[in-house]
Amino acid sequence: MGKKGTAIVLAAGQGRRMGTATQKQFLDVNGKPLLYYSLRGFQESPLIQEIILVTGEDKISFCRDRIVEPYGFTKVSQIIPGGEQRYDSVYEGLKHCANCDYVFIHDGARPFVTEEILNRAWEEVQQYQACAVGVPAKDTIKITDGEGFGIETPARSSVWQVQTPQVFSYSLIRKAYDLLQHTDRSQVTDDSMVVEHMLVQKVHMTMGDYRNIKVTTPEDLPLAEVFLKKIKKFEK
């Protein structure tokens, strides 16, 4: 029997930086909710057998009635309420996984997950047990002090911009998140940090795509529309 892949898609964020009444993951982009594109990437992948959609408790019916059922996302087995912070939502998703080997944790506002990205991540997670999709930084990065002065310039060749999905063996990521519940979580911004800090486990960087952006601010929307028109898999 083959290994089971489960995707946890996070759509519980408030998206305050977008400045719209509608949460960013539900904004209309080229005639469909932004979340549609994220779910579709996993729905169409043979690597994924189950999708757990995590959203706000008040959005469960909306997601089911306006997105999951109308667009035939049959792999979405559960739509569950998330928590106050991202790491809370991830933990809820992990607790609802059943008999899976590998977990793909993905931001619902990141619509450009492709088959190529998923295939690379699948290959690497089997080798390393923990990997995060990302891209090498194009810009020089500055580390600043509390007053905004640059204090360090890391070599650009060693700096990556981290994306999602981040992919782990289920037993490893579940253990890391179980441990996280008993420590300070205030500085946690992604899942690779949890694994690195809780288990002292290295996370391998997996090549993503520069188009795999997270739609966060109003400036991202027209860019997302351009990418949707250019990427062939989204032309259907």
> Topology as H/E string?
EEEHEHEHEHEEEEHHEH
Measured distance between first and last alpha carbons: 32 Å
Q: If you consult CATH, what is the topology?
A: Spore Coat Polysaccharide Biosynthesis Protein SpsA, Chain A
Mind telling me the CATH superfamily name? Answer: Spore Coat Polysaccharide Biosynthesis Protein SpsA, Chain A
Q: List segments where confidence is low: pLDDT < 50 over at least 5 consecutive residues.
A: none
What does the largest sheet look like?
7 strands, mixed
What portion of residues is helical? Answer: 25-40%
Q: Determine the structural class based on helices, strands and strand pairing.
A: alpha/beta
E-strand count? 11
Shape: globular
Please tell me the overall pLDDT.
92
Q: How many helices in DSSP terms?
A: 7
Query: What portion of the residues fall into strands of 2 or more residues?
Result: 15-25%
Q: Which architecture would the CATH scheme give at its second level?
A: Alpha-Beta Complex
**CATH C-level label:** Alpha Beta
Features:
seven-stranded mixed sheet; alpha/beta; 7 helices; two-stranded antiparallel ribbon
Topology:
Elements: E1 5-11, E2 28-29, E3 32-33, H1 34-43, E4 48-55, H2 60-68, E5 76-81, H3 86-95, E6 102-107, H4 115-128, E7 130-136, E8 143-144, E9 150-152, E10 160-169, H5 170-180, H6 191-199, E11 204-207, H7 220-230
Report on this structure.
The protein is an alpha/beta fold. It has helices at residues 34-43, 60-68, 86-95, 115-128, 170-180, 191-199, 220-230, and strands at residues 5-11, 28-29, 32-33, 48-55, 76-81, 102-107, 130-136, 143-144, 150-152, 160-169, 204-207. A hairpin with a 5-residue loop joins strand 8 and strand 9 (150-152). Helix 5 packs across helix 6 (191-199).
